[in-house]
Design brief:
Four copies of one chain form a homotetramer. The first copy, chain A, has 116 residues and is mostly helical. Chain A is 74% helix and 0% strand. The first copy, chain A, has seven helices and no strands. The longest helix of chain A has 25 residues. Chains in contact: A-B, A-C, A-D, B-C, B-D, C-D. Chains B and D meet through helix 2 of B and helix 2 of D.
Chain lengths: 116, 116, 116, 116
């Protein structure tokens, strides 16, 4: 599905419920923080192996999908009120990063070069 | 642009740079936390009015776009290693939320009913 | 109450419950993230005025106190396993900041100079 | 050092610099989020072993101490404007948790019982 369409659908959803009165960037950035916290909570006590295989359990898989969706929903709503098209913003960032992290130089060197 | 294509492009980007060895869900959830912190930093001392008009300043607008893109990039990479198609996950969540927050009941009542 | 004593009390609490096996810095940093998210959630939809007067309501006041305590508890546990005495660390930081933000220069200029 | 004295010292520090005009609970909760993000960043790509031994490296140790102090500084400033004495709040929370997680029952069972 088209990312711009998803942004628009979320905007309509908020408009229909008169939620835009709460949608200042500060408020939405805070809501995003809170949702990331809920996503992080799922993984916080797991070993790397447990984290990597979490989707094998149907209950946890549903939880993960739900929290990922909440994070995306608030991120897109924040982008909406700031007038940012996220597909374009991500595309631009990837172009910058492709130059910043050229392939032969950075292979396996995330620690030295940082990441995205 | 198609959200699934963006997820795939980020996956290729990481593969080409041998970054998947760092991409455990715990690590990516932490990277996501850090990027959200950088996004929040932009808005933390602003008034509501300053936050709502931040995109009028070209320098701040570019900063905001860049941080929003970083958050999306890590969210999609986390979804990638968990095998979650984010367009489907968000669509499912919106269906659930449309039932949870029916239009006539919730108008302007975010405080009472919570949100997304 | 002495901060070092509080750190020690939390350490004993974890030892008695055999929780140290979960207390890797990554795990505790994630738990801290999650608790900050819960604290942020209380304030996310409030206006500045509502946020500033939240303690006048007994129920919310108790919620705020509880979440603040959770954040401090995880921060001190993280400091414990890293062997950091937080009273000393904060004292050192305040000495640095007193030089970085001299009084006559920075008055009312947080936006220009950043903060702590 | 006494935790209440630290809270008071931070309050004086902010007063002397006229920073209280920025210290709404929303703003300070956001600043706390940002500082936690910087703390998390240090650990995000590390293995459990690397994270557990990070203080053996003098440069990283100083970074960790500095970020831990920043998190505590904003947490205490947030508590200050909310009128919360953190030593009391933490003591009360530990009393609640001692009942919630009795020693013989919970040993080694954090996954089942949750934590703090």
């Amino acid at each position: 599905m088209n990312l711009s369409d998803l942004q628009r659908a979320l905007d309509d959803f908020a408009t229909e419920r008169d939620w835009h009165r709460f949608h200042n960037p500060k408020n939405l950035a805070m809501a995003l923080t809170n949702e990331v916290g809920e996503l992080v909570e799922i993984f916080q006590w797991l070993t790397f192996d447990q984290a990597a295989t979490i989707m094998e359990d149907a209950h946890h898989a549903e939880q993960v999908r739900s929290e990922l969706a909440d994070v995306l929903a608030y991120l897109l709503q924040l982008a909406n009120i700031l007038g940012v098209d996220m597909a374009t913003a991500l595309h631009d960032k990837m172009t910058v990063n492709a130059r910043r992290f050229p392939i032969p130089l950075t292979q396996g060197q995330a620690a030295e070069y940082g990441q995205l």
